[in-house]
Write a structure and sequence with these properties.
The structure is a single chain. The protein is of the alpha/beta class. The protein has two domains: about 1-170 and about 345-355, Glycogen Phosphorylase B (Rossmann fold, 3-Layer(aba) Sandwich), CATH 3.40.50; about 175-335, 3-Layer(aba) Sandwich (Rossmann fold), CATH 3.40.50.2000. The protein has 17 helices and 13 strands. It has helices at about 10-25, 45-50, 65-85, 95-110, 130-140, 150-155, 170-185, 185-190, 205-210, 210-225, 235-245, 245-255, 265-270, 280-290, 305-310, 320-330, 345-355, and strands at about 1-5, 30-35, 60, 90-95, 110-115, 140-145, 165, 200, 230, 255-260, 275-280, 295, 315. The strands form two sheets. Strands 3-2-1-4-5-6-7 form a seven-stranded parallel beta sheet, sandwiched between helices. The longest helix has 19 residues, at about 65-85. About 50% of the residues are buried. Bound molecules: uridine-diphosphate-N-acetylglucosamine and uridine-5'-diphosphate (UDP). The site of uridine-5'-diphosphate has 16 residues, from helix 1, helix 13 and helix 14.
């Protein structure tokens, strides 16, 4: 069986790592297409180096651009590779433009499509990711849902065949790598941090970076908290901070440690030892939950509702007062942890289903 995997953005490299490992174990042939959506060393190569992911067989070099440009170029170039490689299946992850382009290229050539992280919904169609999720799910032949909520969302949209509740591949990745990270890395020493004496922040969602007011509210709350906040900034966010004149404000505040994006192993250590995490990332919300670290989500809605239901995550949007209040006050009540993301064997299940099912 021959699978073409299409990836392009940071979280997809992390998600594919455990699945590729399982493919190698059971002898599934995998050809990897990297769309080139993310290309900076810290957003791209570092993950291939650290996570033992197969080097991409094709890098399409699409890079950045508008949604139409990016998705269109990817579609065109992925199609060429699929025509050449003639795989049995196209495998896509998550909800980025690379996901949608891979799924569309596959289905139009009548190649079966499998979607890992199927069924997630924020019910906010202004998010580009929500559109990518809905469209990808509706053209997929195999839908690997990480949670029961995801299965229900698919059911409600009439997708009821070939839906598999596998658990979350990001949990597999975290469980596998957290011990490696603990052994190898000294990021806390390097940055002069003490466990549980700092907060960790990431921001990159379009709704927060393309909107000056939202980004300024977030930055103001960080500064006013007067707490030490480590902030590995996505290149998109770094550019927005500079464009809006907020970079200098943040630098001169003194309590925010603005750094480049870090590798996954460093990120796990920063997350595990943080007092609380502030983020608008989907993956980071989950990792906070897996590591039992309180999470303050800088969005109005989340597709990872389980983290909120269990009390580990609170949604505050880009509201300065709410963010500040959550930094000072938010504590998970009771500390419920209901293991709604599986048993850490999602990747093994996915590989086995694909091996037997195509
Ligand atoms: C994309 C995904 C988002 C995902 C995120 C993971 C879409 C629509 N969005 O958002 O769902 O959460 O990746 O991180 O697919 N840039 C660089 N260097 C890079 C990559 C990006 O400088 O290596 C800058 C460019 O200015 C670019 C901007 O970041 O225009 C945005 O990049 P893009 O890939 O379009 O979207 P992300 O915000 O990264
Ligand atoms: N991540 C990382 N370094 C960073 C920021 C995030 O390795 O500086 C990891 C994080 O641990 C998680 C994934 O990237 O596994 C989340 O990706 P991102 O926030 O870019 O996208 P999203 O999950 O929102 O789609």
């Amino acid at each position: 069986m021959k699978v073409v995997t299409v990836v392009g953005a940071r979280p997809q490299f992390i998600k594919m790592a455990p699945v590729s490992r399982e493919f190698r174990k059971i002898g599934i042939e995998e050809v990897v297409i990297h769309t080139g959506q993310h290309y900076d060393y810290e957003m791209n190569k570092i993950f291939f180096e650290q996570l033992n992911i197969p080097e991409p067989d094709y890098n399409l070099g699409v890079g950045s651009g508008t949604h139409g440009y990016q998705t269109g170029e990817m579609l065109k170039r992925i199609e060429e590779v699929l025509l050449k490689e003639k795989p049995d299946l196209v495998l896509v992850y998550g909800d980025t433009n690379s996901t949608l382009a891979g799924a569309l290229a596959g289905v139009k050539l009548h190649i079966k499509v499998a979607h890992v992280e199927a069924g997630l919904r924020s019910f906010d169609r202004r998010m580009p990711e929500e559109v990518n999720r809905v469209l990808t799910d509706h053209v997929s032949d195999y839908l690997f849902a990480p949670t029961e909520t995801a299965v229900k969302n698919l059911y409600n949209e009439g997708i009821r065949e070939e839906v598999y509740l596998t658990g979350d591949v990001m949990l597999d990745a975290l469980l596998y790598n957290v011990r490696i990270a603990e052994r190898k890395l000294k990021i806390l020493d390097e940055l002069g941090l003490k466990p549980k004496k700092y907060y960790l922040a990431t921001v990159h969602r379009a709704e927060n970076t393309d909107n000056r007011r939202n980004l300024e509210n977030i930055i103001n709350a960080f500064i006013k908290s007067n707490d030490l906040i480590v902030f590995p900034a996505h290149p998109r966010t770094m550019k927005a901070l500079k464009n809006y004149g907020l970079y200098e404000k943040l630098e001169s505040a003194g309590n925010v440690l603005l750094i480049k994006p870090v590798g996954y192993l460093d990120m796990l250590m920063l997350e595990k030892n943080a007092r609380k995490i502030l983020t608008d990332s989907g993956g980071v919300q989950k990792e906070a939950y897996f590591l039992r670290v309180p999470c303050i989500t800088l969005r109005e809605k989340t597709e990872w509702v389980e983290t909120v239901e269990d009390g580990w995550n609170v949604l505050v949007g880009a509201d300065e007062e709410k963010i500040l209040n959550a930094i000072k006050e938010f504590e998970p009540d009771g500390g419920t942890y209901t293991h709604k993301f599986g048993d850490g064997k999602a990747s093994e299940k996915i590989a086995k289903i694909l091996n037997g099912g195509v």
